[in-house]
Specification:
The protein folds into three domains: 128 residues, NAD(P)-binding Rossmann-like Domain (Rossmann fold, 3-Layer(aba) Sandwich), CATH 3.40.50; 145 residues, Succinyl-CoA synthetase domains (Rossmann fold), CATH 3.40.50.261; 158 residues, 3-Layer(aba) Sandwich (Rossmann fold). By secondary structure, it is α/β, with parallel strands linked by helices. The chain has a seven-stranded mixed β-sheet with strand order 3-4-2-1-5-6-7, sandwiched between helices. Strands 9-8-11-10-12-13-14 form a seven-stranded mixed β-sheet, with helices on both faces. A four-stranded parallel β-sheet has the order 16-15-17-18, with helices on both faces. β5, α3 and β6 form a beta-alpha-beta unit.
Length: 449
Amino acid sequence: MNGLERLFSPKSIVVVGASSKEGKVGYELLKNLVEYGYPGEIYGLNPKGGEAFNIRFCRDVNELPDDIDLALFATSGAVALNVLEALSEKGLGAAVIYASGFAEIGNKELQDRLTSLIKNYNLRIVGPNCAGIVNNMDKVYASFVPNVEKGLIAMASQSGAFSAVVTTYLGMKGMGLAALATLGNKVDVDETDFLKYFSKYEDVKSFILYIEGIKYGRGRILAKTIREVGKPVVILKGGTTEGVEKAVYSHTASLSGDYRILKNVLEGVGAYFTDDYIELGDVAEATAYLNPPNGDKVGIVTNGGGPGVIAVDHLHKLGVKIERTPDRVIEMLDHLKPYMVRTNPIDLTADGDEDYYYHTVYTLMRSEWPDLIYVLHVPPSFINPYKVAEAVGQAYVDSGRMKPLIPLFMGVDIKKVGDILHSYGLPSPTTHRSASMAIDYLIRLGRSI
């Protein structure tokens, strides 16, 4: 894996700039490694010495053992490169450089020096100007992005701050990440390396990429990798409008490139583009939990006409057409009251309690039509939405999970309903648009199989 094993699954780590003071990056890195149960050797390096978490800090590089796998640099860029070279002489394998002050502010000389060290010592580097990495499967929490709990999605983000937005949103729904890499200036490791490495893990079901810029020639390699990986890849591209190049470059020293060309190329190999963090998280979550459908027929179950109409609008905008419920299926819905609409959307009205949802979902799951079920629910005061969520999940399980099901519960505690749905192996999107995009991508993935 070209040294990526020593980066993402290291057997030994040194925190350069280790600190015993709360609020310092060198303290947070040690804290996260220890508290998340990193099983390998941890060393601290600080010329003033010190101790934290029962780890005594070495004062000099020569006090450290040879062949440490990974160095985490909680120092300025200039100091980091001096120590990086000394550690490289002792067999260092990889490093994460958190500091800014490189090409993104015009300091090309410092970044060129880093590039030379990478070539001379065959290093693998994440950053500079990043927020670190997390591999929850191997208990490597080398980041100051907070609360990255274990999940089914792996995320590579060129922005550390944006990755925190996504992880916070996923956490609100009871979701986490299998792995995270905040790539910063991408002087070495990029999205392609990340996809290749983490695609080998069975626990990783889908990928999220936040991209600001791609180096010349790497777009084609990324497309080839997405095709080879064969797992869902959901993308948000920053820097899609004219005149944005200067802002993007000042952030991560990357040129934004032609968005339309990139989008067409990457969608052509199976990726999917979104426009905000909610869509990004919800679409990736859906593809992590659900297999693609065998066709493009969508059946909608709702308890309100308005939400059903909005659902149809969003699907139509994405090119997903909604057909009338076939007569043979209408006949199967004989448990519904006469005033409940059997055409598509199937409207259970406000009287649609957990029993009506269970029997309707179960019937559709077991029938030839549709290929995918889209369930919507808005809670009237006399219906418990969490019992409805449990009924939908139970119907999904009892029917043998024969087709994908997208549930959208509105006006509820998203963490509570998310925990319920996840327990049945279902995603928990939070908006009409993100749920519709999840349906659209699942249908696209089904066509490509």
